[in-house]
Design a protein that fits this description.
Rossmann fold, alpha/beta, globular
């Protein structure tokens, strides 16, 4: 299942992330792609708020992984720096857990990610507008339908 939606501003991004947070389940895999500054970490901050986290969620660019503990843990990965390095970071134990896993720049470790996943590609239209390309594979197909309405 594939859908595209336009997000007009940061308020709409927050509302969209809240919709996604209502669909989360143990072992949820969310893959984010988009240029630098497109809003991947901003989306993840809003998703975390929807999950009940009050921590300041920020980019794990230099640490690769940040774990936020809650009713469902949130494993936030930024694998930008792993491009070409391979899968030497043993991230699979976090990806294949009962935690919610958000992976920015997921294509850099695509061989380590389950086929069933939710993918959101964020494209910059202008200073505030974003085009979201949303794809769900397997059990995530129904979620795409719910969050894109």
């Amino acid at each position: 299942m594939y859908k595209e939606i336009i997000i007009k501003d940061i308020t709409e991004m927050n509302e969209f992330a809240l919709k996604v947070s209502k669909e989360i389940f143990p072992g949820f895999i969310l893959c984010l792609e988009g240029d630098l500054g497109a809003g991947k970490t901003t989306f993840t901050k809003f998703l975390g708020l929807g999950m009940g986290f009050t921590d300041n969620i920020n980019s794990p660019t230099f640490t690769i992984l940040k774990i936020y503990e809650g009713e469902l843990n949130l494993n936030h990965m930024d694998v930008y720096r792993l491009n070409g390095i391979g899968a030497d970071y043993d991230l699979e134990e976090y990806i294949y857990s009962d935690d919610v896993c958000v992976i920015e720049w997921y294509k850099n470790i695509i061989e380590s990610i389950p086929e069933e996943r939710l993918v959101i590609e964020i494209e910059i239209i202008d200073e505030t507008k974003r085009l979201l390309k949303i794809e769900g594979v397997g059990k995530y197909e129904k979620i795409v339908q719910k969050i894109s309405n």
